[in-house]
Amino acid sequence: MRMLRVMAPLLALVTQLAHAGAAAAGRTGFLLCQSCHGSCGQGNRELNAPRLAGLDAAYLERQLLDFSSGRRGAAAADVLGAQMAQMAKTLSDKAAVSQVAAYAATLSAPSEPATPGGDLTSGKALFSMCAACHGPAAEGNPALQTPRLAGMSSWYLLRQLEAFRAGWRGVGPADSPGARMRMMAMTLADGAALRDVIAYINSIAPRAAPAENACRF
Ligand code: HEC
Ligand code: HEC
User: Fold this and answer.
1) Of the chain's two ends, which shows fewer C-beta atoms within 10 Å, N or C?
2) What is residue 11's predicted lDDT score, i.e. its pLDDT?
3) Of 35, 36, 164, which is best to mutate to test ligand 1, by the most ligand atoms within 8 angstroms of its C-beta?
4) In this model, does residue 207 exceed pLDDT 60?
């Protein structure tokens, strides 16, 4: 019993140090990424590169593996997904992927200004369905494998809803999180519904992001 009492905090410390170690190692790997996604992971609309700051490590890691394995970014018409897939393939192995994901998950940047347009009332009603998985404040829920949507690049979120609907994303083999989301995207009636729900998501104030690598620009 006494042994357990000593071991539990020790194990927690070892896990914490392992995470910190992976994040530190991923910093160098992120140098390539920041040429498009920005040094704070703030995103760059001109390069179509979305904000990464605010996403959790498990989601980031899964997306990188999806890109490099062809579950994402492989559809003929998905030019931007293909561009990112090329980048994901430069990561040498699973350890390199975990490290860069661990580092990116420590980034924090002011949230993107919302893209104007969309009807907030209709968007709020539509969002009640999304909240079940993405959380009431669109903060994401790692237990359900859902990413944060609040404060993320609204133009990118719109493109992803279109990608799910077009079958560019969420149709690959063994992509059950993607398949779950594709099913939800198909329930949105039309382009106006997509814009309305994104407008509402962008009206939700994002929760304060981790301050570790907080960065102003
Ligand atoms: C040449 C520019 C470029 C570089 C360099 C680049 N990316 Fe990307 N990345 C993109 C684009 C464009 C997208 C959007 C793809 C889409 O629309 O499906 C993207 C999407 C992503 C996503 C998906 C985000 C989400 O919310 O699902 C992740 C994760 C990501 N990039 C991580 C990285 C990492 C890590 C690196 C470095 C190893 C990197 N990127 C390097 C252009 C780039
Ligand atoms: C049944 C659970 C579930 C519901 C309900 C749901 N989602 Fe998702 N969503 C997911 C999962 C899981 C993912 C991650 C997919 C992946 O890993 O590729 C996701 C991903 C997304 C993405 C991609 C984000 C990114 O960074 O690339 C967007 C955008 C999105 N959801 C919007 C919505 C909207 C809007 C609604 C409501 C209309 C909604 N979701 C409802 C499960 C859900």
Assistant:
1) N
2) 63
3) 36
4) no
Q: How far apart are CA 158 and CA 65, in angstroms?
A: 22
Task: List CB contacts of 179: < 8 A, sequence separation 6 or more.
Answer: 170, 171
145-176 pLDDT, tens per residue?
999 999 899 999 999 999 999 999 999 888 99
Q: Give the span between the Cα atoms of 1 and 154, in whole angstroms.
A: 51
Ligand 2 center from residue 212 Cα (angstroms)? 27
Residues having CB closer than 6 A to ligand 2 are 62, 126, 129-130, 132-134, 145-147, 149, 157, 160-161, 177-178, 180-181, 184, 188, 197
> Which own/partner pairs from 184-191 qualify as long-range (CB within 8 Å, at least 24 positions apart)?
184/129, 184/130, 184/133, 185/161, 187/129, 188/126, 188/161
Distance CA(200)–CA(202), nearest Å, equals: 5
What digits encode the pLDDT tens for the residues 15-62? 666 667 778 889 999 999 999 999 999 999 999 999 999 999 999 999
Find where tokens 């099913």 sit: 183
Nearest protein Cα to ligand 2, atom 31: 181
Q: Could you give the angle at the alpha carbon of 109 between the alpha carbons of 104 and 113, nearest 5°?
A: 125
pLDDT tens readout for residues 95-135: 999 999 999 999 988 877 777 789 999 999 999 999 999 99
